Amino acid sequence: MGQMIPDLNPRATMEFKTNGVPKMPKPQYDPKFTDKVIAATGPHAHPRLAQIMPSLIRHLHDFAREVNLTVAEWSAAVDLINECGQMSNEQRNETQLLCDIVGLESLVDEITSKMLATSTAETPSAILGPFYRSDAPFLPNGSSIVQNLDPSIEWYDQAIADSAFLTGQVLAAGTGAPIQGAVVDVWHTAPNGLYEQQDSSQPEMNFRGRFTTDEDGRYSLYALRPVPYPIPEDGPAGRFLKMLDRHPHRPGHIHFIVSAPGYRPLTTQLYDDRDKYINNDAVFAVKDELVVTFQPREGDSNAKWSLEYDFILGRE
Ligand SMILES: [Fe+2]
């Protein structure tokens, strides 16, 4: 595909706005058109669609009228979405990435978690992201998700400098009772910003593990302080970011899925407050409650830093 979006519709810039003053009146579009499209929905439509489509149609039509959307611009948007679909497969979801860079996945995630929440004490959720693997190994508490760390690895020194001990409890919202037997599924990138499945130099399941909480609801593991990484830029979503004059970086984060029988599984991320992108996430997923401060750790040859963070789960 060549140029993704045609030049701005000159009518929008020249005819209607000169020094902010309309030169000629905006065309009068058919005032009955949107109602006619909404009314086409039949009595046996899927109930949820019947509920939400009038709003979607109204917003879409209002948007098109507001910006004087041309056929060429609409056609470029259709091409963009088509290209995202054609690029998507088991390993990559380019359409989801397109939604991410306009904040839609984060917004839908927030709506969903707040709709289902039974207590304001629950740990906020954050997006799953495209690099989760559901079959990470179960590891004993106190063990490390860092595999085969060797001085010959390019990022060895950074891995040592960022070595971190992570611990905390999984607690029930409302009562604050510790949840024994909760599973804490954790994953993050190497210091080169790549997840193991993106990087053939890393061992299988590197920086991934599942930990089961003890009788105090406590988990503990060794990992690394996370580093920022760019979302994939080699597809249409990346091109779109560039057209918006935006950077592709996500602030360093550690992913978690915390689950326990009888409780709603929590998918979330913790963000390291040292990160320069902490207030400028390319996919808008950072929430204040999920920003953490690692503390220097003394007397542990396996970690230079430590972090204590409790996850609070809501009832199913
Ligand atoms: Fe991530």
TrEMBL record:
<keyword id="KW-0408">Iron</keyword>
<dbReference type="Pfam" id="PF04444">
    <property type="entry name" value="Dioxygenase_N"/>
</dbReference>
<dbReference type="Pfam" id="PF00775">
    <property type="entry name" value="Dioxygenase_C"/>
</dbReference>
<dbReference type="GO" id="GO:0009712">
    <property type="term" value="P:catechol-containing compound metabolic process"/>
</dbReference>
<keyword id="KW-0560">Oxidoreductase</keyword>
<feature type="domain" description="Intradiol ring-cleavage dioxygenases">
    <location>
        <begin position="157"/>
        <end position="313"/>
    </location>
</feature>
<dbReference type="GO" id="GO:0008199">
    <property type="term" value="F:ferric iron binding"/>
</dbReference>
<dbReference type="InterPro" id="IPR015889">
    <property type="entry name" value="Intradiol_dOase_core"/>
</dbReference>
<keyword id="KW-0223">Dioxygenase</keyword>
<keyword id="KW-0479">Metal-binding</keyword>
<protein>
    <submittedName>
        <fullName>Catechol 1,2-dioxygenase</fullName>
    </submittedName>
</protein>
<dbReference type="InterPro" id="IPR050770">
    <property type="entry name" value="Intradiol_RC_Dioxygenase"/>
</dbReference>
<dbReference type="InterPro" id="IPR000627">
    <property type="entry name" value="Intradiol_dOase_C"/>
</dbReference>
<feature type="domain" description="Catechol dioxygenase N-terminal">
    <location>
        <begin position="47"/>
        <end position="115"/>
    </location>
</feature>
<dbReference type="InterPro" id="IPR007535">
    <property type="entry name" value="Catechol_dOase_N"/>
</dbReference>
<dbReference type="GO" id="GO:0018576">
    <property type="term" value="F:catechol 1,2-dioxygenase activity"/>
</dbReference>
<feature type="region of interest" description="Disordered">
    <location>
        <begin position="1"/>
        <end position="25"/>
    </location>
</feature>
<dbReference type="InterPro" id="IPR039390">
    <property type="entry name" value="1_2-HQD/HQD"/>
</dbReference>
<comment type="similarity">
    <text>Belongs to the intradiol ring-cleavage dioxygenase family.</text>
</comment>
